[in-house]
Amino acid sequence: MGATADNGLKIVVVGGFGVGKTTLVRSVSEIRPLNTEETMTRTGEHIDDISEVRGKSATTVAFDFGRITLDARNVLYLFGAPGQERFWFLWDRLFSGTLGAVVLVDTRRIDDSWYAIDRLEHHGTPFVVACNDFGGPAYAPGRIRDALDLDPQVPLLDCDARSRASGKQVLITLVEHVRDTYAGHPHTPHSPVPEQELTR
User: With the C-alpha atoms ordered 117, 29, 68, 135, is the resulting torsion angle positive or negative?
Assistant: First the structure.
Protein backbone atom coordinates (compact mmCIF):
# COMPACT_ATOMS: atom_id res chain seq x y z
CA MET A 1 0.00 0.00 0.00
CA GLY A 2 2.80 2.40 0.89
CA ALA A 3 4.30 2.18 -2.59
CA THR A 4 1.23 3.83 -4.17
CA ALA A 5 0.52 6.42 -1.48
CA ASP A 6 0.10 10.02 -2.61
CA ASN A 7 1.55 11.67 0.50
CA GLY A 8 4.82 10.69 2.12
CA LEU A 9 4.86 12.44 5.50
CA LYS A 10 8.24 12.76 7.17
CA ILE A 11 8.86 12.67 10.93
CA VAL A 12 12.29 12.86 12.52
CA VAL A 13 13.26 11.38 15.90
CA VAL A 14 16.15 13.29 17.47
CA GLY A 15 17.92 13.47 20.79
CA GLY A 16 21.21 12.82 22.51
CA PHE A 17 23.50 9.84 22.26
CA GLY A 18 21.91 6.60 23.48
CA VAL A 19 18.44 7.96 24.35
CA GLY A 20 16.56 5.26 22.41
CA LYS A 21 15.92 6.73 18.96
CA THR A 22 16.72 3.53 17.09
CA THR A 23 14.61 1.56 19.56
CA LEU A 24 11.61 3.86 19.07
CA VAL A 25 11.76 3.67 15.27
CA ARG A 26 12.12 -0.12 15.46
CA SER A 27 9.20 -0.54 17.84
CA VAL A 28 6.64 1.39 15.75
CA SER A 29 7.71 0.65 12.17
CA GLU A 30 5.56 -1.74 10.13
CA ILE A 31 8.61 -2.79 8.11
CA ARG A 32 11.95 -4.06 9.24
CA PRO A 33 13.71 -0.75 9.82
CA LEU A 34 16.73 0.27 7.84
CA ASN A 35 19.46 1.26 10.22
CA THR A 36 23.09 2.24 10.02
CA GLU A 37 24.24 0.95 13.37
CA GLU A 38 27.90 0.06 13.72
CA THR A 39 29.65 -1.72 16.56
CA MET A 40 31.22 0.64 19.06
CA THR A 41 34.95 0.20 19.56
CA ARG A 42 37.45 1.22 22.21
CA THR A 43 38.67 3.95 19.88
CA GLY A 44 35.21 5.52 19.95
CA GLU A 45 35.33 5.79 23.74
CA HIS A 46 37.72 8.71 23.32
CA ILE A 47 35.29 10.48 20.97
CA ASP A 48 31.83 9.75 22.39
CA ASP A 49 30.92 10.06 26.07
CA ILE A 50 29.70 6.58 27.01
CA SER A 51 29.79 7.08 30.77
CA GLU A 52 25.98 6.98 30.99
CA VAL A 53 25.45 4.27 28.36
CA ARG A 54 27.85 1.57 29.43
CA GLY A 55 25.66 -1.23 28.08
CA LYS A 56 25.49 0.24 24.58
CA SER A 57 27.38 -1.88 22.03
CA ALA A 58 26.30 -0.26 18.73
CA THR A 59 25.54 3.24 17.54
CA THR A 60 23.80 4.93 14.59
CA VAL A 61 26.24 6.59 12.19
CA ALA A 62 23.81 7.99 9.58
CA PHE A 63 20.10 7.53 10.32
CA ASP A 64 17.39 4.96 11.01
CA PHE A 65 14.40 4.61 8.72
CA GLY A 66 10.95 3.12 9.34
CA ARG A 67 7.46 3.37 7.87
CA ILE A 68 3.84 3.38 9.01
CA THR A 69 1.04 3.16 6.42
CA LEU A 70 -1.83 5.36 7.60
CA ASP A 71 -4.27 4.76 4.75
CA ALA A 72 -4.30 4.36 0.97
CA ARG A 73 -3.04 7.91 0.47
CA ASN A 74 -0.79 8.64 3.45
CA VAL A 75 2.41 7.02 4.61
CA LEU A 76 4.45 8.16 7.60
CA TYR A 77 8.21 7.94 7.14
CA LEU A 78 10.27 7.89 10.33
CA PHE A 79 13.89 9.01 10.41
CA GLY A 80 16.00 8.51 13.50
CA ALA A 81 18.92 10.95 13.64
CA PRO A 82 22.37 10.03 15.01
CA GLY A 83 22.93 11.40 18.50
CA GLN A 84 26.68 11.93 18.67
CA GLU A 85 27.89 15.50 18.37
CA ARG A 86 30.23 14.59 15.50
CA PHE A 87 27.15 13.71 13.35
CA TRP A 88 25.08 16.79 14.19
CA PHE A 89 26.04 18.37 10.85
CA LEU A 90 23.60 15.90 9.24
CA TRP A 91 20.61 17.17 11.19
CA ASP A 92 19.79 20.34 9.25
CA ARG A 93 19.52 18.38 6.00
CA LEU A 94 17.51 15.66 7.70
CA PHE A 95 15.03 18.29 8.95
CA SER A 96 14.31 19.46 5.39
CA GLY A 97 10.69 18.71 4.47
CA THR A 98 9.89 17.40 7.94
CA LEU A 99 6.27 17.50 9.14
CA GLY A 100 7.31 17.38 12.80
CA ALA A 101 9.79 15.86 15.21
CA VAL A 102 10.06 13.86 18.39
CA VAL A 103 12.80 14.93 20.81
CA LEU A 104 13.63 11.86 22.87
CA VAL A 105 15.08 12.69 26.28
CA ASP A 106 16.95 10.78 28.96
CA THR A 107 16.24 12.77 32.13
CA ARG A 108 19.56 11.62 33.60
CA ARG A 109 21.30 13.57 30.80
CA ILE A 110 18.96 16.47 30.19
CA ASP A 111 21.68 18.72 28.72
CA ASP A 112 22.07 16.34 25.77
CA SER A 113 18.67 17.53 24.49
CA TRP A 114 19.53 21.19 24.11
CA TYR A 115 20.97 21.05 20.61
CA ALA A 116 18.00 19.15 19.16
CA ILE A 117 15.52 21.63 20.58
CA ASP A 118 17.61 24.59 19.43
CA ARG A 119 17.81 23.34 15.84
CA LEU A 120 14.10 22.51 15.64
CA GLU A 121 13.18 25.94 16.95
CA HIS A 122 15.59 27.47 14.41
CA HIS A 123 13.81 25.64 11.58
CA GLY A 124 10.34 26.38 12.97
CA THR A 125 9.56 22.66 13.06
CA PRO A 126 6.75 21.56 15.41
CA PHE A 127 7.98 19.01 17.95
CA VAL A 128 7.07 17.12 21.09
CA VAL A 129 9.36 16.05 23.90
CA ALA A 130 9.16 12.44 25.09
CA CYS A 131 11.04 11.32 28.20
CA ASN A 132 12.20 7.75 27.69
CA ASP A 133 11.92 5.44 30.69
CA PHE A 134 15.35 4.23 31.77
CA GLY A 135 14.18 3.21 35.24
CA GLY A 136 15.63 6.26 36.95
CA PRO A 137 13.93 8.70 39.31
CA ALA A 138 10.78 10.40 38.05
CA TYR A 139 10.79 14.18 37.72
CA ALA A 140 7.81 16.51 37.82
CA PRO A 141 6.88 17.81 34.34
CA GLY A 142 7.37 21.38 35.50
CA ARG A 143 10.94 20.64 36.50
CA ILE A 144 11.71 19.11 33.10
CA ARG A 145 10.09 22.03 31.30
CA ASP A 146 12.20 24.47 33.29
CA ALA A 147 15.39 22.49 32.63
CA LEU A 148 14.72 22.47 28.88
CA ASP A 149 13.22 25.99 28.81
CA LEU A 150 10.28 24.55 26.88
CA ASP A 151 7.56 26.72 25.44
CA PRO A 152 4.27 25.98 27.26
CA GLN A 153 2.72 24.93 23.93
CA VAL A 154 5.22 22.11 23.38
CA PRO A 155 3.72 18.77 24.50
CA LEU A 156 5.76 16.85 27.10
CA LEU A 157 5.07 13.19 27.81
CA ASP A 158 6.65 10.04 29.19
CA CYS A 159 7.28 7.01 27.02
CA ASP A 160 8.92 3.62 26.81
CA ALA A 161 10.73 3.44 23.46
CA ARG A 162 10.59 -0.37 23.60
CA SER A 163 6.79 -0.40 23.59
CA ARG A 164 4.89 -0.15 20.29
CA ALA A 165 1.82 1.20 22.08
CA SER A 166 3.86 3.85 23.89
CA GLY A 167 5.68 4.84 20.71
CA LYS A 168 2.43 5.17 18.80
CA GLN A 169 1.05 7.42 21.54
CA VAL A 170 4.07 9.68 21.10
CA LEU A 171 3.38 9.89 17.35
CA ILE A 172 -0.33 10.57 17.92
CA THR A 173 0.59 13.41 20.28
CA LEU A 174 2.97 14.81 17.66
CA VAL A 175 0.36 14.60 14.88
CA GLU A 176 -2.21 16.38 17.05
CA HIS A 177 0.37 19.06 17.89
CA VAL A 178 1.24 19.54 14.20
CA ARG A 179 -2.47 19.84 13.34
CA ASP A 180 -2.98 22.43 16.08
CA THR A 181 0.15 24.33 15.05
CA TYR A 182 -0.94 24.63 11.43
CA ALA A 183 -4.61 25.25 12.20
CA GLY A 184 -5.66 28.54 10.64
CA HIS A 185 -2.69 28.54 8.25
CA PRO A 186 -4.14 27.96 4.76
CA HIS A 187 -0.78 27.29 3.13
CA THR A 188 0.23 24.37 5.29
CA PRO A 189 3.13 22.51 3.65
CA HIS A 190 1.55 19.10 4.24
CA SER A 191 -1.90 17.56 4.19
CA PRO A 192 -3.39 16.85 7.61
CA VAL A 193 -2.40 13.44 8.95
CA PRO A 194 -5.33 11.17 9.85
CA GLU A 195 -4.09 10.44 13.36
CA GLN A 196 -6.93 8.00 13.99
CA GLU A 197 -5.11 5.58 11.69
CA LEU A 198 -2.22 5.42 14.18
CA THR A 199 -4.51 3.95 16.81
CA ARG A 200 -5.20 0.79 14.83
Answer: negative
